[in-house]
Design a protein that fits this description.
By secondary structure, this protein is mainly alpha-helical. The chain contains 20 helices and five strands. The protein is globular and about 75 Å long. One of its GO terms (molecular function) is deoxyribodipyrimidine photo-lyase activity.
Length: 457
């Protein structure tokens, strides 16, 4: 066969199932063409776009060391390329959820290749489970995480590492060229940096994992979400590492494994219910009359809500592409509950900015906050942003790193400027409503409105 191997979002040299497939089927392959289609991130935030390109360039440089030279094209030109190469088959990752556009995912590209009379071979590269292997006795996906976790946790086992020879891969591979506008200069091996960061986490921070999950001063706890979003690791490598170290600290290791299982849970649900990318999982809420207040949405996006914990989190996201998971829950609940704005607006905004964006996790995380998803937070358990701030940033350290105007403000009043606006003006010469916005909504009134709207269903 004349095989094209699609490398986008599988940006790793080590433990790459695509390379392993080529090695195992070399007797069936006449020629192999490694192809790296570049995503269009024109509507993404610059911080996300730049990071994607940095990873791509580092990967291409790493491939070059092994005499592997992919064809680099845009997705728009991919059809022309496969016709020119006269491919008979393409090998494509079938379980990636982190593409910037839906049209790049497996179901869409599979249809596109088949229109060119090319046989598509789907390969697991990014998730641990085959979705249908996780189903309940009724052959349906679990819709409650605890049940999914209990039924499938035992299936996490040590798996052998991939063994392939780079020389053999290069021997059958055609030398490609860069047919995109991407300039392949100033490259860093991001996979190497990611592996070092992961090893550092295993050697140190994982021992404090359960505490770090609520430390909002951190950009992230392990960084694993970002590494997986770009395919810098195989999740099975991660599971191997966790199982090997498990006996040294069962509590923290199990806590981390549980988070990985959440990722798998959401992946299975999204693969079986793709319509929930834009519709409420709970069908009864699909007719919810959300607010579409654009001025409120702009205030939320720009960190101008008058609630410091929300504003600090959004400003950091806008600047860095990072947001701690605890803060994601805070700002998503604020948008969907306090402002009662459609969760799809927030999900789309996160997609523009988050470096670790994963469609399944992001969508279902938002639906959890909006109380429209499976196993979601009950609508009556609505976060109070001031209480969340006092609990998870008690001294205001995080707020002060993002809102410099509050650098000298006492932790006793920093969480609720509107309530303490007299003290802000007298003690710090900060006029609330002028130098920093007053709260754009009252939490109690918002809560009453949410209760009223949800009780209608």
């Amino acid at each position: 066969m004349y095989l094209g191997v699609i490398l986008n979002r599988v940006f790793r040299i080590k433990d790459n199932p695509l390379f392993d497939y080529v090695a195992e089927h070399q007797d069936e392959i006449n020629k192999v063409y490694f192809i790296l289609p570049i995503e269009d991130l024109a509507d993404a935030a610059a911080v996300k776009r730049d990071y994607y390109h940095k990873v791509v360039k580092g990967f291409v440089s790493a491939l070059d060391k092994y005499n592997l030279h992919p064809y680099i094209v845009t997705y728009e030109k991919l059809g022309e390329l496969v016709d020119t190469l006269a491919l008979s088959h393409v090998l494509v990752a079938k379980d990636i959820m982190s593409y910037h556009k839906e049209t790049y995912d497996y179901p869409h590209v599979k249809k596109a290749f088949e229109k060119h009379n090319i046989t598509v071979i789907g390969q697991r590269v990014n998730h641990y489970f085959q979705p249908t292997k996780t189903f309940n006795k009724q052959q349906q996906p679990y819709k409650v995480f605890t049940s999914f976790y209990k039924a499938n946790r035992q299936d996490l086992v040590h798996t052998p590492k991939k063994s392939y020879q780079y020389k053999q891969l290069a021997k059958n591979a055609e030398k490609g060229s860069n047919q995109s506008d991407l300039k392949l200069k100033n490259n860093k091996d991001i996979e190497k940096l990611a592996r070092k960061a992961w090893n550092d986490f295993l050697n140190d921070d994982i021992a404090h994992y359960n505490k770090l999950t609520d430390d909002v001063t951190q950009d992230f706890v392990s960084g694993l979400g970002k590494y997986l979003a770009y395919g810098l690791f195989d999740i099975r490598e991660i599971i191997n590492d966790l199982l090997e170290g498990y006996d040294s600290d069962e509590t923290n290791y199990e806590g981390f494994i549980r988070e990985i299982m959440f990722r798998e849970f959401y992946y299975v649900l999204m693969s079986q219910y793709p319509e929930t990318a834009t519709k409420s999982f709970s069908k009864k809420y699909r007719d919810m009359q959300w607010s579409y207040n654009k001025s409120h949405f702009e205030a939320w996006k720009n960190g101008q809500t008058g609630y410091p914990i929300v504003d600090a989190a959004m400003k950091k996201l806008n600047r860095t592409g990072y947001m701690h998971n605890r803060l994601r829950m805070v700002v998503s609940q604020f948008l969907t509950k306090n402002l009662f704005i459609d969760w799809t607006w927030g999900e789309a905004y996160f997609k523009q900015y988050l470096l670790d964006y994963d469609n399944a996790s992001n969508v279902h995380g938002w639906q959890w906050s909006a109380s429209t998803g499976t196993d979601a937070v009950p609508y009556f358990r609505m976060f109070n942003p001031i209480r969340q701030s006092e609990r998870f940033d008690a001294q205001g350290y995080f707020i002060k790193t993002q809102l410099e105007i509050f650098s000298e403000v006492s932790s006793k009043i920093i969480h609720d400027p509107t309530k303490h606006k007299t003290k802000f003006k007298e003690n710090y010469h900060i006029e609330i409503g002028k130098d920093y916005p007053e709260a754009i909504v009252d939490h109690k009134n918002s809560r009453d409105y949410v209760m009223h709207k949800f009780k209608q269903f």
